[in-house]
Amino acid sequence: MEIKDNEFSRQFETTADGKLLTIEYSVQERKLFLTKVNLPEGFDNEELLSEFIKTILDTAEEKRLRVVPTHPKVAAFFRKNPKYKEMLPPGIRL
After folding, report:
1. Which DSSP helix (H) or strand (E) runs through 80?
2. 36, 38, 42, 94: which has the fewest C-beta neighbours closer than 10 Å?
3. 72-80 and 46-62 helices cross at what angle (nearest 10)?
4. Could you give the CA distance from residue 25 to residue 49 in angstroms, rounded to a whole number?
5. Sheet holding 31-38, edge to edge
6. Residue 94 and residue 85: Cα distance in Å, rounded?
């Protein structure tokens, strides 16, 4: 999966079936806040969304950032994939 980090718009972008999927973010104090998930109307491919989030988390891990999932879909991903919970900042429980 190819992901573009659009730093100007502060969002990660990828395409699926010719449609744009984005996850908006902000970075503060070595923490990556995943703030909003924008999906095309009628999008229901949860597997693709999970792959998108995993790729973003891999990037965050390389940069040694903690991840704060503020959007419900991202928080649900962390609940379903406990191996990523070590990337949460201390004190954050899902």
Report:
1. helix 72-80
2. 42
3. 80
4. 16
5. 4-6, 11-16, 19-28, 31-38, 66-69
6. 9
Alpha-carbon gap, residue 10 to 36, rounded angstroms: 11
Residues in contact with 12: Cβ distance below 8 Å, sequence separation at least 6, in sequence order: 3, 4, 5, 6, 22, 23, 25, 52, 56
Report residue 84 as tokens.
């990523």
pTM of the model: 0.91
Instruction: From first to last of the 94 residues of the chain, give the pLDDT tens digit.
Output: 899 999 999 999 999 888 999 999 999 999 999 999 999 998 889 999 999 999 999 999 999 999 999 999 999 999 999 999 999 998 888 7
Please tell me the distance from the alpha carbon of residue 2 to that of residue 13, in angstroms, as a whole number: 9
List, as one string, the DSSP characters of 6-41.
ETTTTEEEEEETTEEEEEEEEEETTEEEEEEEE--T
DSSP class of residue 69? E
CB proximity list for 1: less than 8 A, separation 6 or greater: 14, 51, 52, 55
